[in-house]
Sequence to fold (335 residues):
Amino acid sequence: MNSVYKKLSSCARHLLASAALVLVMAPVGAQVQTRPDTNSTTPVVRRIAITIDDLPFETRRLKLADEQRATKAILSALQAHKVKALGFVNEDRLLVKGEVDARIGMLESWLDAGMELGNHNFGHLGFHGSSLAKYQEAVLRGDTFTRWLLQERKQVPRYYRFPHNQTGDNAEVQKQFEDFLQQHDYKIAPFTIEHDDFTYARVYEDAVLKNRKEDAERLRKAYLANLDRAVNTFETMSDEMFGRQVSHILNIHASLLNADMLDKMLSKLEQRGYQFITLEEALQDPAYLLPAGPSRQYGMSWLARWARMAKKRLSVYGQPDPEEWIMKWDQELAR
Ligand SMILES: [Zn+2]
Fold:
C-alpha cells in the first residue's frame, strides 16, 4: 500500500510541476478566450460543472411534499440544459420519522435523472474545530444509503465535498485527511464559483412561507443579478491567476430558491458562453493539481486558495456580499 501511495504522490508531484510550468509559461498572446462583451461575433466557449450541496434538501422548514416538488424542478432545469450535475448528500437529512423512504426516493430521483451523488458527510460537520477521528467518522457514516443506491447502478460514490468548505486547520491534518480520502477512493470536490445562494435561499423561503409575494419577486431579481456579479469576480480572479478561464465549478445548494431560479441561472451562464461539463471533466484542468492549502475556519473559492499558496496578489478575492436589506433580513432570521 505504502509504495503505491509513494508512487502516486511522486507522480502527482511530477504532474503538478509540469502543470505549473505550462500554466506559468502560457503566453498571453496564446489566449483564445475573450470576454463575451468585447467580441460578440465570436462565440466564446467557457466550461463549468454544476455541483449542488445539502441533498436531499437544504431546508427543514418546508413540508416533504414541497421539497419533493422543488427537487423535481431542480432536476427538470438541469435536464432541460443537459447538465450532468453532482449532488452532495448529508445522510442525516434522510432521518425524519415517517419520511425516510420518501427522502431516499428523493435521492433516487437524482440518479434516475442522470445525475451523480457524492458525500457531504453525516451531520454537515465542519472540519474546523473537529478532531480528525470524529471528522473521518462523519465521512464514513455519510455514504451508507448513497453507496447502496449507487451499487444498484454499478457505481460507487467518488467525490467528497467539505461542509462549510473547511479543508483543515493546518497542513498536517489536511494531509492526513487527504490520505484518508484516497484510501477510501474519494476525490475532493473543489469549487471556483459561489454566490451566497444559501443566504438568498433562507430569506426567499421566509418570504414564500409568509406569502410576501413582492419581496419574493425582488429577491429573485436580486439573486440573478448577484450571479452575474459573482461570475464577473471569479472570472477576474481566474484571469489574474492563470491568464485564462479555468474549467469552473459552481457550488450551490438544494433550495426552494434554486428550484425556482435554476433554469434562468443556467440560461444566464449559457448566454455568458458557458458549456456545461461534468465534475470529472472539470477536474482534468491542470489548475486543480495546484496546492490549495488548509482553509482553517473560512472556506474560500479554490481560486483564492491557489493565489494564497502561490503568493499571488489578486485585485479581488471573492463574490460581493448580498444587498444590505437581504443581509439584514437574514440576520433577523438567525436570531
Ligand atoms: Zn453544505
In short: The first strand starts at residue 46 and ends at 55. The mean pLDDT is 89. The beta strands are 46-55, 86-89, 116-119, 159-160, 187-188, 248-253, 274-277. The chain has one domain: 46-334.
